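FYI - complex with (2R)-2-hydroxypentanedioic acid, inputs then prediction.
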Amino acid sequence: MQTELTNIVGENNFILNPGSQDKRLIDHRGYFHGKASSIVFPQTTEQLSQLVMYCYENDLSLVPQGGNTGYGGGATPDQTGNQILVCLEKMNSIIEVDKVNFTMTVEAGVILATIQQAAEQSNMFFPLSLGAEGSCQIGGNISTNAGGLSVLKYGNTRDLVLGLEVVLPDGRVLNDLNKLRKNNTGYNLTQLFAGAEGSLGIITKAVLKTFPLPTQRCCLMLAFANIEQLYQFYSLSRQQSADCINSFEYISSASLSLVNHGPVDASFPLNNDYSHYALVEFSCSSNLFELEPVVEKILELAFEQQIIIDGVMAQSESQRKSMWRFREAIPETERLLGGSIKHDISLPISKISEFLNAIEIRLKQVTENFYTSVYGHIGDGNLHFNLLHSKESNATKFKQQFEQKLSTIIYELTKELGGSFSAEHGIGQLKLRQLQQYKDPMALMTMNAIKTAIDPKNTMNPGKLINN
Ligand code: FAD
Ligand code: 2HG
Ligand code: ZN
């Protein structure tokens, strides 16, 4: 294998028999520990194509990896030690920033934050934004169809992709790398690879949509007596701001208290004894009207109509950033506390209140030994409904003993209310069972048929997303 890899990628671009402690072989949450016969760092599509062709001919399977920040273990190889881990980090060029077409063309290994910065340098905006943006790669974002903090206005990652170049499982290169917003010529193949979690091929290049750079931002931290009022504010503010909201994030009192006494070195701008908080950000790119008076008026109306019980607007960029810290620090704080049992669910917005009212009682029938940290992209109907052990018990033991029972209760109620058990984090190897259980059988059959047609030897990230 050493000779072949040297011939294909050059002697400095692979590691043979990597040690099991190599961080690329362990997923971000430390749930999955894999082994690999080698880790390869291709530098070009041509090298990658040759590598995949070699694997196809020799029945070797491959696992693509970006920044390794995914939540489903999709980028971790299995335990056999036979798989080849393909890391895209050396394919990290920004190929073109096109100000006329509002697009960027990039290689798959570019880090998300680098793309955001490059867009900004050209007075444009790439809106995908999430806590891992300093290390996740655009190829990983596309493959997981990541959501994040500005889906309400700009959509999920798949909505931001116009075209892709992909190395198929037999090594041939599919070129669908176009800048077209209209291209009605059959199946949308680019969209097939978005959210495929590396199961159909390795993305090597992408054409992304960019947007006018926001020049005004107004950020509110609000307190609500109940979820119904939160959604009244959601409607009011979407309507009256001409839909200028880019983020509408929920923070429950329990999630707030995790970060309020921990990592955020700013004081929370409201009293901390309310039950429900929302961080709402408005933005626009125009300088022809002022956003702040509009948002002030919305706040005033909401107070008058008694929709909110408390609320402030950030008065400076540093206040805006510290408001965001209270939201963004929650996952990391949970991790430092030993981790949580995570549920990344979505519901029709109209059902969230019913879900929250019913779920706790059902869970408490199994154990009282936990508390919930609920937060997330509530404007998209997406909650991170995480369960943490109560202080007396041990986090690992809690997960081992209760994860399956508690998660089943949460997913069953989610299903009952027309929701999804995986809103934005995907399936990977973590949620294969739930996929079988909750996805429509005909949809599963169609997914399997697609996988078999494109990857007949099942050498492309086997055991992820599709359990063949
Ligand atoms: P990896 O973890 O490396 O890979 C993920 C999957 O994509 C794997 O199946 C892998 O095989 C495949 N893959 C990677 N690159 C390629 C490629 N070039 N071609 C084909 N397949 C490929 N997710 C959200 O949706 N919203 C959030 O708000 C969010 N916040 C997060 C916050 C934190 C602190 C962390 C740690 C994670 C968060 N995530 C979030 C999850 C994660 O960041 C995203 O899933 C991200 O899109 C993964 O990108 P990555 O480059 O790390 O991919
Ligand atoms: C977020 O929105 C991420 O912060 C992480 O999707 C959610 O860790 C989590 O549960
Ligand atoms: Zn999220």
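The pocket of flavin-adenine dinucleotide (ligand 1) is lined by residues 28, 63-71, 74-75, 88, 108, 130-132, 136-137, 139-141, 143-144, 146-148, 197-198, 202-203, 331, 424-425, 428, 461, 464 (CB under 6 Å). The mean pLDDT is 96.
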